[in-house]
């Protein structure tokens, strides 16, 4: 973006305005964008996937640092703006693409290695975006993303705390998360009502549980936090939880959960927000054993 044009002026020149439906808040201070890119640990050989190019505040510094930038932008008006202004560096390829509908496996194959995704993320899609990244982590090396402060707090929380929840536990099992830059509201146009923080999520495939164990752990975590004020004895003792495992008798939920908690060495009155992520893995391993034993008895 030309330095002489502020976001408001540039948008008006193209008969555009920030779209609330897309959660558009544009960075307006170049030094913040430069600091984000500096802290993102990008090499000169990297191809960066930028989600939400916007007015190009991050795109320029990314293009100066990386070999190539593939920018995904959902707003056709902003794509037309860049086509008219011709303001993006030559090593930037701008694509009309909604990240939530993108084929990340194909993108990783195109790049030739796991992706580094960078984004000044619209806060309205932070939840689906993060879980899309989680589900596609085998195609992603790391994510450098701006989120609202409370999302960053949840992702970096530790038990026991009210911020600790499903996302915290799942990401902790398969990634490391670092806080990079705090960004106050006045750094944006228009100003959001919340403070923002740039975090970097680096996936650690050699440390995460095996695929089947992770999938079962995810089910247990999701069900456990469905009513976080209840004890695990109550949440995991529910018939609805045990119906997922037809080899076990869902009607015996109370006896099954007692066996499950005892086998995983978890207190009967423990609540989900008190458990470290590894404890949920123990539950998954014990449940796997229980299912195998039940299946062998029925044959």
Q: Which key features would you list for this structure?
A:
alpha/beta; Rossmann fold; elongated; 2 domains; 299 residues; 7-stranded mixed beta sheet; two-stranded antiparallel sheet
Descriptive notes:
This protein has 13 helices and nine strands. By secondary structure, the chain is of the alpha/beta class. It has two domains: 7-203, Vaccinia Virus protein VP39 (Rossmann fold); 211-297, rRNA adenine dimethylase, C-terminal domain (Helicase, Ruva Protein, domain 3, Orthogonal Bundle). A seven-stranded mixed β-sheet has the order 4-3-2-5-6-9-7. Strand 3, helix 4 and strand 4 (92-96) form a beta-alpha-beta unit.
Outline type: elongated
- Which range best describes the helical content: under 10%, 10-25%, 25-40%, 40-55%, 55-70% or over 70%? 40-55%
Strand order of the largest sheet: 4-3-2-5-6-9-7
What is the C-alpha radius of gyration, as a whole number of Å? 23 Å
- Mean pLDDT, all residues: 95
CATH superfamily of the largest domain: Vaccinia Virus protein VP39
Number of helix segments?
13
CATH topology type of the largest domain: Rossmann fold
List low-confidence stretches: none
Proportion of strand residues: 15-25%
| SSE ordering | HEHEHEHEHEHEHHEEEHHHHH
Profile the largest sheet: 7 strands, mixed
Based on the coordinates given, report the CATH architecture of the largest domain. 3-Layer(aba) Sandwich
CATH class of the largest domain, anyone?
Alpha Beta
Class from secondary-structure proportions: alpha/beta
Count of separate structural domains: 2
């Amino acid at each position: 973006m030309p330095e002489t044009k502020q976001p408001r002026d540039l948008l008006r020149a193209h008969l555009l305005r920030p779209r609330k439906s897309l959660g558009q808040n544009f960075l307006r201070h170049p030094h913040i964008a430069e600091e984000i890119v500096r802290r993102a640990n990008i090499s000169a050989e990297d191809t960066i996937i930028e989600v939400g190019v916007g007015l190009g505040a991050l795109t320029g510094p990314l293009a100066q640092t990386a070999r190539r930038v593939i920018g995904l932008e959902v707003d056709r008006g902003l794509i037309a703006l860049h086509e008219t202004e011709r303001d993006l560096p030559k090593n930037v390829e701008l694509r009309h693409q909604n990240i939530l509908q993108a084929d990340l496996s194909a993108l990783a194959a195109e790049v030739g290695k796991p992706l580094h995704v960078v984004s000044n993320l619209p806060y309205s899609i932070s939840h689906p975006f993060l879980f899309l990244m989680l589900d596609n982590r085998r195609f992603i090396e790391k994510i450098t993303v701006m989120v609202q402060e409370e999302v960053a707090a949840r992702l970096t929380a530790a038990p026991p705390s009210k911020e600790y929840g499903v996302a915290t536990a799942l990401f902790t099992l398969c990634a490391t998360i670092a806080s990079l830059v705090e960004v106050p509201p006045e750094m944006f146009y228009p100003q959001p009502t919340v403070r923002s923080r740039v975090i970097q999520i680096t996936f650690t495939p050699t440390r995460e549980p095996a695929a089947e164990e992770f999938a079962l752990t995810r089910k247990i975590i999701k069900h456990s936090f469905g009513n976080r004020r209840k004890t695990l004895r109550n949440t995991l003792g529910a018939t609805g939880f045990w119906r997922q495992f037809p080899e076990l008798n869902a009607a015996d939920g109370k006896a099954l959960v007692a066996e499950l908690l005892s086998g995983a060495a978890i207190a009967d009155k423990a609540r989900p927000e008190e458990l470290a992520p590894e404890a949920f893995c123990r539950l998954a391993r014990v449940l796997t054993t229980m299912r195998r034993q039940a299946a062998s008895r029925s044959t």
